[in-house]
Design goal:
Blueprint (H helix, E strand, L loop, with lengths): L2 E2 L1 E4 L1 H7 L7 H14 L3 E5 L5 H13 L4 E7 L2 H11 L5 E8 L2 H8 L3 H15 L6 E6 L6 H14 L3 E6 L6 H14 L7 E6 L6 H11 L3 E4 L13 H10 L1 H4 L1 E2 L7 H12 L20 H9 L27 H10 L6 H18 L4 H13 L4
Parallel strand pairs: 1-10, 2-3, 2-9, 3-4, 4-5, 5-6, 6-7, 7-8, 8-9
Helix pairs in contact: 2-3, 2-12, 3-4, 6-7, 8-9, 15-16
The structure holds 3-methyl-2-oxobutanoic acid and zinc ion (ZN).
Length: 388
Amino acid sequence: MTDTVRILDTTLRDGEQAPGFSMTPDGKLRMARALGALKVDVIEAGFAASGQRDSDAISEIARQVEGPVIASLARATRGDIFAAGNALAPAPRRRIHVFIGTSPLHREFKLHMSRETVLENIRSAIAYAREFTDDVEFSAEDAIRTERDYLVECLSAAAAAGATTLNVPDTVGYTTPDEIFDLFRFLSNHVDRSSETIFSAHNHDDLGMAVANSLAAIRGGARQVECAVNGIGERAGNCALEDLVMAIRTRSDAFGVRTDVDSTKIMAASRTLAQITNTRPARNKSIVGANAFAHESGIHQHGVLQNRETYEIMKPEDIGLTTEAIVLGKHSGRHALAARAEALGFVLQGEKLEKAFAAFREVADEVGIVDTARLLGLLSEQETGRPQ
Ligand code: KIV
Ligand code: ZN
């Protein structure tokens, strides 16, 4: 039987922490609904102790979004854990995600703690978190730059205290695929834990390797990957959910695992996030960029018209680009435009619909059939006021 890799989505926590991506409580709820539709396993909805607004947003998501486990981040302190437990109380399934820095740099310069004190904090924090829920995740922040023997001690201590997910973050995006593969294999062989405990990868993209590193971690034994839609997150971002899910799906022969994510909801989630944060992914962004399924050059167009597989390794429909459903051309009306726009994550009503329709008619008069790539460009331009 093929192993399933769980997807923890941290768009609303690590993603929201990054400059330019802050969201209103309503925006967070909307995004959480899109993540629910995507069927991610865990939604990390925020960091409850960071303030009342975040805490309220987590509670609202816990109350209203059905399906995924809802999680809150917490430092390894009683105050943070209490805030997380409280905010998550309305969730039918909840997770507290406790973290503490374990690398020499974090111990010496940030925490001013000895190795033994960090270990004591891990034990007491996880035990306290277990008073609120039996689903507790532990993260050894900056795990990649932590001494291997000490990392094994920290993760074993967390597992003994009741953590069921052991996360090994590459907090600064420093590792390489070979290195992280080897680390996960080493941890799988050395960390003392029960058979239900799973390892998790959380990779940042500072060197552009977050997705490759996450796939290598899976090969090394990770069975949860932490991702964010459109790859948003601290600095250069987190592992992009859409890239990881589609790599696993498209190259199941190479990775031999699956996820439970409904890939046909990827485009809608990506567009929802872009609308909420007013930031679109780059045109050439893999999977969700406006060019990802567009074919402009004559040679490519000719090939695709004969057989799509000449230049396409995935079908647009696989990510929710429903190209065939309704052909949009100069005879199409407002309803057809609004329906296609909605499938792409754009809500068009009232004056917005009128303006978009006028722009659409102009393009349709010129080109006949308005394909998905062109429509995405047009809708984005309407939204941002900038040519795409
Ligand atoms: O990058 C990181 O180390 C984190 C942890 C808090 C999981 O975001
Ligand atoms: Zn992170």
